[in-house]
Amino acid sequence: MNDTLLASPALRLLAIVSLVLVLKMAAVGVYTSTLRIGRKVYATPEDYALQRMQAKAASDPDIERVRRAHQNDLENILPFFVVGFFFALTRPPLLAAEILFIGFAVARILHSVFYIRAMQPHRTIAFAAGSLLSGVMLVWTLVVLLQAA
């Protein structure tokens, strides 16, 4: 395994954290579907037709809240995959990678919980923590790349 990218402790940690975040995003998606099915509030007219139901004009506020939490994940976790990958390629100290990667994952998991449960200011604090950690990785990586040029 020493000849692979995963021999790097930071890249290996990034892989683990990324997979945990993908599982978290999938769980939020499953929760959205579970709410839709349980409340019989579907996304499209063809979904209602499949159930032999008349389409509803109003949406469910809880379903919309979970959808917004999932959308926020897409807007923040997907860029993390790119930023985290390039950050890991800078060969950071393992402690720095652990703090930034695991901290980001914890912040995003908490953000989803707080978003779905409508818990402010906790949601904003979790969002800000994740954004700060991602920003540190971004700036760190840019500095290393510009110094190498």
CATH fold-level assignment: Four Helix Bundle (Hemerythrin (Met), subunit A)
CATH architecture, please? Up-down Bundle
The biggest beta sheet, please? none
pLDDT averaged over residues: 94
Broad shape: elongated
Number of domains: 1
How would you classify the helix and strand content by structural class? mainly alpha
- Unreliable stretches (pLDDT < 50, length at least 5) are none
The portion of residues forming beta strands comes to: under 5%
Describe the structure.
There is one protein chain. By secondary structure, the chain is an all-alpha fold. It has a single domain, classed as Four Helix Bundle (Hemerythrin (Met), subunit A). It is 78% helix and 0% strand. It contains five helices and no strands. The chain has helices at 9-39, 45-50, 61-89, 94-116, 122-148. It starts with 8 loop residues before the first helix and ends with a helix.
Could you give the topology of this structure?
Layout lengths: L8 H31 L5 H6 L10 H29 L4 H23 L5 H27 L1
Helix pairs in contact: 1-3, 1-4, 3-4, 3-5, 4-5
Brief summary of the model shown:
The chain is built from five helices and no strands. It has 149 residues and is mostly helical.
